[in-house]
């Protein structure tokens, strides 16, 4: 829709109609509101943000605490090239990261630069949709497609003198949205061609990012693209993994994290080493780029048989429960308190029965009707999970007998008793006679299960956890067990700036910087670096002096031990 189709007043009137009717009023469509569908969707999101609708909000400033990275450096180069080509137009070029923070800006017209400064459209300021409502940078990230936001289509009053054409920027390897690129001009100077230019400039930036990868990795990518990578090859980097078709089934989320840790911890004498991938001997090659970051190419020998999907920790536990369930209508899952027994039982039965089981806390059976509810569910083929069985006493013994008697293996209805390790007396004796049991270790002692549970919990919110998040979760102590894990993921979902990928910046700082389990010299070195950083109040140059090593060496060790907390897989 062009700017001639409707006036600023009509756009404001449409926005007010939507607010008055309520954002849930789906009877108001883009046609009746007389705005493009992308604008209407963005308005609805903007009006339902957690902080409420504020048309006068000012962008938050987030200073750059780290040296410019590959993305920011490459953006500066691409913007400079495009700014030269657009010198005759009154436009500014801006690039933001995934959170909407502006990383780079190029503007030739001094008066236009002052106009942008007044609305804080400059490096370091956040232009996410959740913070400022509908705008070219933030809405392009949310929509994952190009958008043109003109004048009064902006939710924020301060931006309504501008027209902004934005396009998302995709990581050339993972294809995830990592930011956006936008052209901003005064409303009166805007032109429909701005949208096409924004799209092309975003593509140029993606191509430039790919060209910054090591030459060896570029060659590998070319082989993937033209289909000549026939054998099983993995390229594992901080941000994720690239795999040929035959190798992908071998790398579960759990194995990705542990293999990265293994490759990082390996004492490389050269650039080639032997590793095990899904218990198969493989050859790993290390490629280090100019910034000192490592990428690993892992290749299976051609003589190895075709790869079979590697079972995850959860799938192995579920298979074990399947076996146990064939011989009895009752199964007991034992483990420390809050080790995820109930959650495991729910996931297993949901997958097996294609519907949710009934979950009842054991103390509830002392209330009228609770036993009848459980027995009724079992009679209809619905399994029952009884948690906190350790709270029962010998007085409650008849309840257990009644439940065990109602289990119906013919209908596949099972009773799963979730029991803490400290259970004693007649109840535990009864459970021992009734059926088989599965013993679970504490969650902190089972990192693969942590990853599996986290992935399943994230799926309940229709979000994905980044490799960095999975690695941080696998390293945590989880003294609060499965409840702590569930609460954490729910909090990350609430905090996410947009999109469906939860990254490591949403984790608590102490969780982001937790290093992998270290031993011997590595553990001593980790403690020395940690102490030096504390003594230097976080000043890395001063910490390097305290340790008696060069800054470059310290930065490499910080990455190796996971001190950096970047939004990529923790080194």
From TrEMBL:
Q: Which GO terms describe its molecular function?
A: sequence-specific DNA binding
| InterPro entries listed in its UniProt record | GAF, GAF-like_dom_sf, Homeodomain-like_sf, HTH_Fis, P-loop_NTPase
Specify whether Transcription regulation is a keyword of the entry: yes
| Keywords annotated in UniProt | Transcription, Transcription regulation
Transcription as a keyword of this entry, yes or no, is yes
| Pfam families tied to this protein | GAF (PF01590), HTH_8 (PF02954)
Q: Which Gene3D superfamilies match?
A: 3.30.450.40, Homeodomain-like (1.10.10.60)
**Domain called DNA binding HTH: residue spans:** 523-561
GAF domain span: 72-205
What PANTHER family does its record include? TRANSCRIPTIONAL REGULATORY PROTEIN
What is the protein name for this chain?
Sigma-54 factor interaction domain-containing protein
Organism this protein belongs to: Microbacterium testaceum
């Amino acid at each position: 829709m062009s700017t001639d189709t409707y006036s600023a007043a009509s756009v404001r009137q449409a926005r007010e109609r939507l607010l008055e009717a309520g954002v849930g009023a789906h009877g108001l469509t883009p046609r009746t509101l007389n705005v493009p569908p992308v604008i209407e969707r963005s308005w609805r999101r903007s009006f339902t943000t957690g902080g409420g609708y504020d048309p006068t909000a000012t962008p938050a400033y987030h200073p750059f605490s780290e040296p410019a990275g590959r993305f920011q450096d490459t953006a500066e180069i691409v913007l400079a090239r495009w700014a030269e080509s657009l010198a005759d137009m009154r436009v500014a070029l801006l690039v933001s990261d995934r959170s909407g923070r502006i990383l780079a800006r190029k503007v030739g017209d001094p008066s236009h630069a002052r106009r942008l400064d007044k609305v804080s459209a400059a490096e370091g300021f956040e232009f996410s949709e959740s913070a400022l409502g509908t705008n070219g940078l933030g809405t392009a990230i949310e929509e994952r497609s190009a958008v043109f936001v003109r004048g009064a289509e902006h939710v924020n009053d301060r931006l309504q003198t501008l027209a902004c054409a934005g396009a998302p920027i995709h990581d050339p390897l993972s294809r995830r949205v990592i930011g956006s690129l936008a052209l901003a001009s005064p409303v009166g100077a805007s032109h429909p061609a701005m949208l096409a230019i924004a799209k092309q400039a975003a593509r140029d930036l993606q191509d430039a990012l790919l060209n910054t990868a090591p030459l060896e990795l570029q060659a590998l990518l070319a082989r993937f693209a033209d289909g000549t990578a026939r054998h099983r090859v993995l390229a594992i980097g901080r941000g994720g993994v690239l795999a040929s078709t035959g190798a992908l089934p071998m790398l579960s989320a759990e194995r990705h994290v542990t293999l990265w840790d293994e490759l990082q911890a390996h004492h490389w004498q050269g650039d080639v080493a032997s590793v095990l991938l899904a218990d198969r001997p493989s050859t790993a090659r290390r490629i280090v780029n100019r910034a000192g970051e490592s990428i690993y190419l892992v290749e299976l020998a051609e003589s190895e048989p075709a790869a079979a999907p590697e079972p995850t920790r959860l799938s192995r536990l579920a298979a074990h429960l399947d076996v146990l369930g064939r011989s009895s209508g009752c199964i007991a899952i034992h483990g420390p308190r809050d080790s995820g027994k109930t959650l495991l039982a729910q996931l297993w039965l949901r997958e097996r029965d294609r519907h949710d089981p009934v979950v009842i806390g054991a103390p509830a059976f002392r209330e009228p009707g609770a036993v009848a509810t459980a027995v009724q569910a079992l009679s209809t083929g619905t399994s029952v999970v009884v948690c906190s069985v350790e709270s029962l006493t010998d007085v409650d013994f008849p309840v257990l007998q009644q439940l065990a008697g109602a289990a119906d293996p013919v209908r596949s209805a099972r009773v799963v008793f979730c029991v803490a390790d400290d259970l004693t007396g007649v109840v535990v004796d009864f459970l021992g006679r009734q059926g088989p049991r599965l013993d679970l270790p504490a969650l902190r002692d089972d990192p693969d299960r942590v990853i599996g549970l986290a992935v399943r919990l994230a799926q309940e919110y229709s979000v994905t956890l980044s490799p960095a998040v999975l690695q941080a979760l696998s390293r945590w102590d989880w003294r609060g067990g499965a409840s702590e894990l569930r609460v954490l993921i729910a909090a990350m979902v609430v905090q996410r700036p947009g999109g469906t990928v939860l990254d490591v910046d949403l984790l608590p700082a102490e969780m982001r910087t937790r290093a992998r389990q270290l031993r011997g010299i590595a553990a001593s070195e980790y403690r020395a670096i940690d102490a030096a950083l504390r003594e230097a109040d976080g000043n890395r140059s001063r910490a390097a002096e305290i340790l008696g090593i060069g800054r470059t060496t310290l930065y490499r060790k910080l990455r190796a031990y996971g001190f950096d907390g970047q939004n990529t897989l923790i080194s």
